[in-house]
Specification:
There is one protein chain. The strands form five sheets. Strands 9, 10, 11, 12, 13, 14, 15 and 16 form an eight-stranded mixed β-sheet that branches. A hairpin with a 7-residue loop joins β20 and β21 (513-514). With 516 residues, the chain is an alpha/beta fold. It contains 16 helices and 21 strands. 36% of the residues lie in helices and 23% in strands.
Length: 516
């Protein structure tokens, strides 16, 4: 191989998502997975690496990585770190290894777009706009090293840099910088409120589909801190009323998580982080650590004890936000900030507040993990108190509820495939109650009945549909949308019968009776 007299390689120049990469002057790119890139950078000199970046998802990140490598052909080594449980769950770094070892094959993404699928048990792909010969050239000239600890990664990066320093010269780039067209996704937004949304569903799966539809329909598109865009709603409340014990997975499963994944993920919410992991540099906290030991208090156990002693307490609060650690300087503060547990009429509900929530990629796993926590608390209180306790609704409050731009196509496909079914699976039990409509004594009269016993709680009357629905809207602003629209059609029929008593007779839920 011809050796250049040049004693240092050029600086790494990331063409895509540059704000997510720490650049240096070496020959090695380090892919940290879920380990914080800053934790690796502080243990190395800039000459030890070309770039350090995180890879959260094999379907959303490897194509960007490959594009940036093709723009920087002086890079000769890549170190992929799979050091945490999150890395094993996501599989991103393992998929990078499989890419270099096994290559790609023609395929399609979940939305039907042509792509290069990585030959791996892990679902990962590259943009089809990248030519196959460029992929082959990259795989032939960049050596991939797969490691399972941050220490091993840093030692290896230093060894490669030391060999470069010992030779006093570097090999020339293995090619010329290459850029290729990139297909971008776009979205449209219909008018709608920006703040304060409520979505309800019986299961996590159905609620998720409704959430995606609401954001895709009316969310505001704005830039993110990650060199991209997201579509966002502010303060979205999701109420899951009847998620079964053990969790519900549709058949076939269209959710972005599986039962096997949840078995691993549940520990990140229910269990403390092992002592060995706590001391490992670059390993992020888990929600379980924040709940079990971060503040030197087991908040889950504290909640169980409090509600066992006093079922009526409104003080069963668990906090994950550390004002000192997270308020300034923490590059990755927790998204889940606050959990509140309440017992009412022997039913235990759990409300969780997220400051920032990836509703396509993370909300389902978040909700299922919280549901397992809710089950754990419910069963523990019932066992200790000896009193019956039912598992109630799960409520999440997502202050920034968003879908990232690289998930817009998948979100639209999910909505197209499943939203019509979710809408068609109607529920007829409006918590506001039911309404009996009649025409009598020259007026339209409505009686509002309780949803359970059917007792009359309020009456409304007027000579026009408008007069009655104005009273109804003022008295019952929480009416479900479909129920309100139904009442509007019935009131209009009643008004026609009132105005033309010799032609029509009104009877609720039936076509107007035409008098002969």
């Amino acid at each position: 191989m011809q050796i250049s007299p040049q004693i240092s390689p050029p600086l790494y120049k990331p063409r895509y998502k540059p704000g997510q990469v720490i650049c240096g002057s070496g020959l090695t790119v380090i892919v940290t997975g879920w380990t914080l890139r800053q934790a690796i950078a502080k243990r190395l000199a800039p000459s030890d690496y070309a770039a350090i970046g995180q890879l959260y998802s094999p379907t959303r990140g490897i194509s960007v990585l490959v594009r940036n490598l093709l723009c920087n052909p002086h890079v000769r080594h890549l170190i992929a770190i799979a050091a945490t449980q999150e890395d094993r769950n996501a599989g991103g770094c393992a998929c990078v290894r499989d890419f270099f070892e096994q290559g790609v094959t023609p395929g399609q993404t979940e939305t039907g777009r042509d792509c290069w699928r990585i030959k791996s048990e892990i679902n990962g792909f590259l943009d089809r706009e990248i030519p196959l010969d460029a992929i082959a050239q990259l795989r032939a000239n960049v050596q991939c090293h797969f490691v399972t600890s941050t220490r091993e990664a840093c030692d290896l990066a230093k060894q490669i840099a030391q060999k470069l320093a010992a030779t006093g010269a570097i090999a020339p780039p293995w090619g010329t910088p290459q850029e290729f067209p990139i297909e971008t996704s776009s979205t449209t937004t219909r008018p709608g409120p920006r703040y304060g949304h409520r979505i309800a569903g019986r299961t996590i799966a159905d609620t998720w589909v409704k959430i995606l539809h609401r954001i895709e329909s009316t969310g505001t598109v704005r830039p993110t801190a990650y060199d991209g865009q997201w579509q966002e709603l502010i303060d979205l409340v999701a109420v899951v009323s009847n998620e079964p014990r053990g969790l519900h997975f549709p058949e076939p499963n269209f959710l972005p998580v599986s039962g096997d994944f949840l078995a691993e993920y549940s520990g990140q919410i229910l269990d403390d982080l092992p002592d060995a992991a706590k001391s490992q540099d670059g390993v992020k906290y888990t929600y379980g650590q924040r709940l079990r030991s971060w503040f030197n208090t087991d908040q889950i156990e504290q909640t169980i004890e409090r509600l066992t002693r006093d079922r009526h307490s409104a003080r069963a609060v668990m906090s994950l936000w550390d004002a000192q650690a997270d308020g300034a300087g923490n590059s990755s503060p927790p998204c889940l900030n606050h959990i509140w547990v309440r017992i009412a009429d022997d039913v235990l509900s759990l409300t969780a507040t997220f400051r920032s929530n990836d509703m396509f990629g993370a909300w389902v796993a978040n909700a299922m993990g919280l549901r397992m926590l809710q089950e754990h608390i419910t069963d523990a209180i019932a066992d200790r108190s000896g009193l019956p306790l039912q598992l109630g609704p799960l409520i999440t409050i997502s202050q920034s509820a968003h879908i990232y731009d690289d998930c817009w196509d998948n979100a639209r496909r999910t909505i197209a495939d499943h939203y019509p079914r979710v809408c068609g699976d109607r529920q007829f039990g409006d918590p506001t109650g039911s309404f009996l409509i009649a025409v009598r004594s020259g007026e339209i009269a409505i009686e509002q009945l309780t949803p359970g016993s059917g007792e009359v709680v309020e009456c409304f009357s007027g000579k026009t549909a408008k007069r009655v629905y104005q009273q109804l809207a003022a008295s019952s602003p929480a009416l479900e949308t479909e129920h309100a629209l139904y009442l509007g059609t019935e009131l209009q029929k009643a008004e026609l019968a009132l105005q033309h008593p010799k032609q029509f007779r009104y009877e609720q839920d039936k076509a107007l009776y035409v008098i002969n």
